[in-house]
Design brief:
By secondary structure, the chain is an alpha+beta fold. It is 44% helix and 14% strand. The protein contains 27 helices and 19 strands. The strands form 6 sheets. It has a 6-stranded antiparallel β-sheet with strand order 8-7-6-5-9-10, with helices on both faces. The longest helix has 15 residues. It is elongated, with a radius of gyration of 27 Å.
């Protein structure tokens, strides 16, 4: 392997957020690894998914969402995968990407996003303020096996994963369980978030564990506000699809122009809506600065009374009814009479009048004359009408900052990935095996799968010895004898199914279990980081994994894994 090939292949093993940012091929490699894993295929046998293939696509997605909500939580702590430094990572990747470009577009190296989104220091946001500015988290994207294994960690009762992990899990599960064609699933990464867009109905955004439909995107609730943040405020760095990828910083892309342009048009359609009285109300629900300028007019015992819009929205939290739809009457009728006032301040705007104006004039926010008419109707007595209407325009049409396909050279040398949702898992693996020489993403998927019989072990060993800081840090006070006793106490069970797939040392340490070969590699990682040995050797024979320094046996554990080769030099 060349140095770059070794870096990419070993990055496919560890799959940190930084590594995916540098090697965009790896985002979809994780999806394929999850599809090849037996784990998600077992979900098909769960009673929850009985007859799911007979449901309409969105109903299938809802079933899957509920399953994932119950079995996985979002996790982005600093403890699970440990810390590294900016200097170390920039030295590692400086030959592949300009360090200034990395710093200007990656959250771990100074990027802070839009001021509206990041109103607090980003290092405080992530809990890094207690460390030096050089320190950054070693966030790793988890395979489905590592996500499942979080149930073994203190403080967790279910599986867990960060945003890229959840996005990759969803993409794989939509294909395997939901029978949604991979061609309809687009993965998007911004400097601080990853999510999927699925071309079902008017479009569905998958944000961590939740599904966000077009109507939900514009409903003005706190949850939709959180879902909107990344696309409203950040550049989309990577778009990944079975036909390839595009990265905003690279001059080369492999994605199909036709599919990217279709995706761009479809996403823009999802992110745009026409102005209606309900959408106006939803905008005000999400915008407290504008909302405070409005009052509702409502007849109480035949006489017009007035209620601050802030108050009206506050009653929604305890009601099944809403201010902004046809249940308004039921909501307001349930509010105590004493909450209404006989008059209102002259600087306030009556929402009912603006709603009527919007409806009767069919306001089109794309037309300057319509915007001017709406501004005149709102007036400037409470808030700048121009400022409010511009915010309303932005609410009704989020313009995604996608990579510019016109500035890149499209590389069509890689074959697209064409998996059929009717394929069996065996069919999938056979197909991908034949595709490895034709598609880098597919080849890297076998490294992400941790299949040591189907891959060169060198990248796995490199990743194991260099990028597992947690086992070293947490064992620093343990003598070798105590360390080995701890491993003996843990179950000799790998988190990875089968006899050819292996966990990395920090996975063994975090989840307190591992096959003997994985335990031996973890001990080797710790001892090498302590600087005690330049070279170590692991052998696997007759159901045992043994760690040696020269001819001296350091430790031995029972192993059910098939090692290829049977002896590794570390």
């Amino acid at each position: 392997m060349t140095d770059k090939e070794m870096e990419m292949s070993s990055a496919a093993v560890t799959l940190s957020d930084m590594e995916i940012f540098i090697f965009p091929e790896l985002m979809y490699s994780l999806v394929l690894a999850n599809i090849m894993s037996p784990r998600i295929w077992t979900w098909r046998d769960d009673p929850w998914f009985e007859n799911v293939e007979k449901m309409k696509p969105y109903k299938r997605m809802q079933r899957l969402k509920q399953f994932i909500m119950e079995h996985y939580v979002f996790n982005l702590d600093l403890e699970t995968w440990g810390l590294t430094t900016q200097k170390e990572q920039l030295e590692r990747f400086g030959k592949i990407m300009d360090p200034k470009m990395i710093s200007g577009s990656n959250a771990l190296f100074g990027y802070q996003g839009d001021a509206y989104y990041f109103d607090i220091d980003i290092r405080t946001h992530f809990g890094l303020d207690k460390y030096s500015t050089e320190t950054i988290p070693y966030w790793k994207t988890e395979t489905v096996e590592a996500m499942d294994a979080f149930c073994y960690r203190d403080g967790f009762e279910t599986g867990a994963g960060e945003c890229v992990s959840l996005a990759a899990l969803y993409a794989a599960a939509l294909f395997v369980v939901g029978r949604i064609p991979l061609d309809d699933i687009y993965m998007m990464a911004t400097p601080l978030h990853s999510q999927n867009f699925v071309d079902v109905r008017d479009g569905v955004l998958i944000n961590n564990r939740r599904l966000v439909t077009k109507s939900m995107w514009f409903n003005g609730t706190q949850i939709s506000g959180q879902a909107r943040r990344a696309l409203e405020n950040e550049q989309i760095t990577i778009v990944s699809h079975p036909t390839g990828w595009i990265h905003t910083l690279y001059d080369r892309a492999t994605i199909s122009r036709e599919r990217f342009e279709y995706f761009s048009d479809t996403l823009n359609g999802y992110l745009k809506t026409r102005l209606t009285p309900e959408i106006l109300g939803n905008f005000l629900r999400q915008n407290p600065d504008c909302r405070q300028c409005f009052v509702l007019r409502w007849p109480v015992r035949g006489v017009d009374r007035f209620l601050m819009l802030d108050q009206a929205f506050s009653f929604e939290s305890e009601s099944a009814y809403r201010v902004t739809d046809n249940t308004r009457e039921k909501l307001l009728d349930a509010i105590p009479i004493e909450e209404f006032s006989a008059s209102y301040l002259p600087c306030k705007v009556i929402l009912n009048d603006i709603e009527l104006f919007v409806k009767s004039h069919s306001i089109d926010l794309d037309k300057e004359n319509d915007r001017s008419a709406l501004m005149a109707e709102i007036g400037d007595s409470c808030i700048s009408a121009g400022e409010m209407v511009q915010q309303l325009v932005d609410f009704c049409h989020t313009k995604p900052r996608l990579p510019d396909i016109e500035r890149v050279e499209l590389d069509s040398s890689e074959a697209p990935i064409e998996l059929d949702s009717e394929m069996t898992r065996k069919n999938v693996i056979e197909y991908l095996g034949k595709m490895r020489e034709k598609n880098v993403t597919v080849n890297m998927a076998f490294y992400a799968l941790r299949d040591l019989l189907a891959t060169d072990p060198g990248p796995f060993i490199k990743a194991a010895m260099e990028r597992n800081p947690v086992c070293f840090k947490e064992s620093v006070d343990l003598q070798l004898e105590d360390l080995l006793d701890k491993f003996d106490e843990w179950p000799d069970v790998s988190i990875y199914d089968g006899n050819v797939r292996l966990a990395q040392p920090d996975e063994v340490w975090n989840f307190k279990r591992g096959d003997g070969l994985e335990k031996a590699l973890t001990v080797a990682c710790i001892l090498k980081k302590r600087g005690l040995y330049d070279t170590l050797r692991v052998t696997v024979n007759a159901g045992n994994a043994e760690l040696y320094h020269q001819s001296d046996l350091i430790c031995a554990f029972p192993s059910a894994k098939i090692s290829c080769p049977s002896e590794w030099q570390l």
